[in-house]
């Protein structure tokens, strides 16, 4: 494969200890807020999840993806964002699918009939749920810190992420990226494009990195040391724009218990752009030193509830979901943006999605007619 022409720069991704949380909460909240403002990414340690539990979850993930295709497809993905999917994300700028498969797990009723059977992997459901509850507990600590930084009540965000609700939609996503050839075989390969966690900007270059930007609140990521690929590109200033910097930074994991956390678009908007939803990607390997082998990762996403008033004075009730209810009133604590309903918020996001997708298709058509066209284009995926 051709070498990347992109530039890289070293940046510090803050590492924050959650040790002695109750006694250090103000200091921890200050550190998290600082990282959320400046980078949009940070890693946490001393969070209470044992290395053995992380290793077991990775082992169960690998066992699942090693199952025959007919077994995995017996729990197919659906619109509730649960179940198994295989090479399902296709980049509009190239028509090529991401080289990955995934299995989305949730706590509540959406998982009915979508858990892999014990006869295929004994104890998978019980171990997965136990791990998910541990990650949810860590997530709630972060939510308290974020709420405190924004001058909300401590339980403000926790209230909207109650995993005990039957229709909770916080999601644990098991990911398996396929190995790719180290020599150029004429094919285009993608892993996961540059996205800032609903619609997005993407890049198409010699390494075929593409991007999307799904809406989200907060994501926690587990990765195996040595299975590199995660990169970030800060520089986005407002949630309504796709601005970003010019240089990427590789994010390395030193231990499987390190959890990398990133701010999503929803939280960026909720904070009136104080916290940054930073573009990031899993780079398709294309140069010496890249990881051409398999890559496994585990991501835990915290979307908001469906029925939601999200401003500084109103409170809400109901269930988790990836987009606001149509009658939700959306506005940050400082009211930076005009008040919009959930329906308007979603409609605006979809307009951006389709505009970006159309631009990607047009850019792809033009690049085929002009092979030496500049590599930067706009694109989006779901």
UniProtKB/TrEMBL annotation:
Gene3D superfamilies reported in the protein's UniProt record: B-lactam Antibiotic, Isopenicillin N Synthase, Chain (2.60.120.330)
SUPFAM superfamilies the UniProt entry points to: Clavaminate synthase-like
An annotated GO BP: small molecule biosynthetic process
TM ranges: none
Pfam families: 2OG-FeII_Oxy (PF03171), DIOX_N (PF14226)
Domain annotation Fe2OG dioxygenase: ranges: 167-312
Keywords: Iron, Metal-binding, Oxidoreductase
GO MF assignments: metal ion binding; oxidoreductase activity
Sequence similarity: Belongs to the iron/ascorbate-dependent oxidoreductase family.
Protein name: Fe2OG dioxygenase domain-containing protein
Originating organism: Recurvomyces mirabilis
